[in-house]
Amino acid sequence: MHFPRTRKIFYFNKAKMSRPLRKLFSAPSKLATAITLIGLLLSYLAPFIHPSTIPSLPFFGLSYPIFLFLTLAWLVIWAFWRSKWAIYCLVTLLIGGKLHFRNFSTSATDNATQMATGLKVLSYNVRLFDLFNPSFNDALSSRNAIFQFLASEQPDVLCLQEFYRQDKPTRFEIMDSLNRIMQTKDYHERSAHKRRTKENYGIALFSKYPMIARGDVMFEAQGEQDFNYCIFADIVKNQDTFRIYNVHLQSIRLNSDPHIEGEEMQTYSSKKGMIAAYRKLRSAFKKRADQARRVVEHLKSSPYPVIVCGDFNDTPMSYTYNQFQLILLDAFRGNGLGLGTTYVGRLPAGRIDYLFYSPTLSVSHYKIQRKTSSDHRAISCVFHQNKS
């Protein structure tokens, strides 16, 4: 006699409990989901449209990881409630297709023979060897740690961004150590020289093998605090010739002093500061896109297979990355493992350092440095000529 009554009470309580939850996932949640899906769709467009055309679009590409995470979260939530919005989330994810695979890789395969016969290239933004550390002793420790790392890696070709050296006499010695590590005094450099202090800021390319030619790819005029360049060298190993490009594309420079990070977050926390940061980011997106076009046009005329490495200051969901990806292969995607994060500074950026290569080459032993004395991790890979 009491069983039906108990069942009725239980049914009533369940309905009462579910009503506020259903209300929670009504109009506001649908609106939030729609905004997330639109944001993700716009991030898909960022690699294909020049930043000058739609200036705000690169920001969606930069925010791709956030939109992806939110879309996956909404997919789980709506699937739990068996809502058609789960289908909308799934379709939006599927539209991204291969774009999602730009951000992680599961392709690591190596063998010892490839390591011995190939050309090992290492790229590293050394942040001026930590020159501007408030403690000079700490700066020396960071510099020495970088030297020890390079000596342990023994690359055939070394490409450094945010390179620094001072003409002798100097308390902060660089060149003698690098020449000793690379076992050569032959290198190519492009830098800005400060006459008063005899300091040089720029990029450098060292090789254990002969450079038969070298040159620069000229960018448009920059500010006096911008040390962004592109250099190249033709290098011969075992009768194989490679053209190596070392690239450092436009930096963001949120702070007027490129060596100061500590105050950046406070400086740009106000509304006025955020507007200024937005304008600097927008300008940097455009400059990098134009610089990338110049490099790509130059490498198209190379008589040899090319390897392009360096600090691109842009993520895989950017127009800059896409210009290189259209004609070259990404070594991380061909032989990397995991998410491939290379930038470890204050502002999260993920993977912004790359090694691209011609389709006539193959790769092995892709590696990302684990512990770094810079705000970037070094990346390295072994390249081989495909024999017909």
Uncertain spans, ≥5 residues at pLDDT below 50? 6-14, 256-263
Order of helices and strands: HHHHHEHEHEHEEEEEHHEHEHEEEE
Instruction: Enter the CATH topology name of the largest domain.
Output: Deoxyribonuclease I, Chain A
Alpha carbon gap, first and last residue = 87 Å
Chain-averaged pLDDT: 87
- Spatial order of strands in the largest sheet: 4-5-3-2-14-13
Number of helices: 12
In total, the number of strands is 14
Structural class: alpha+beta
Largest sheet: 6 strands, mixed
What Rg is obtained from the alpha carbons, in whole angstroms?
A: 25 Å
Q: Give the percentage of residues in beta strands.
A: 15-25%
Please give a structural write-up:
This protein is an alpha+beta fold and 388 residues long. The chain has 2 domains: 3-102, no CATH class; 111-385, Endonuclease/exonuclease/phosphatase (Deoxyribonuclease I, Chain A, 4-Layer Sandwich), CATH 3.60.10. Helices cover 39% and strands 23% of the residues. It is built from 12 helices and 14 strands. It has helices spanning 3-24, 27-45, 57-62, 64-80, 85-96, 112-117, 136-153, 175-182, 264-267, 271-299, 319-325, 331-335; strands at residues 105-106, 119-125, 157-166, 187-194, 199-207, 211-216, 230-237, 240-248, 306-311, 329-330, 337-338, 353-357, 361-368, 379-385. The strands form 3 sheets. A 6-stranded mixed beta sheet has the order 4-5-3-2-14-13. Strand 7 and strand 8 (240-248) form a beta hairpin. The N and C termini lie far apart (87 Å). 38% of the residues are buried.
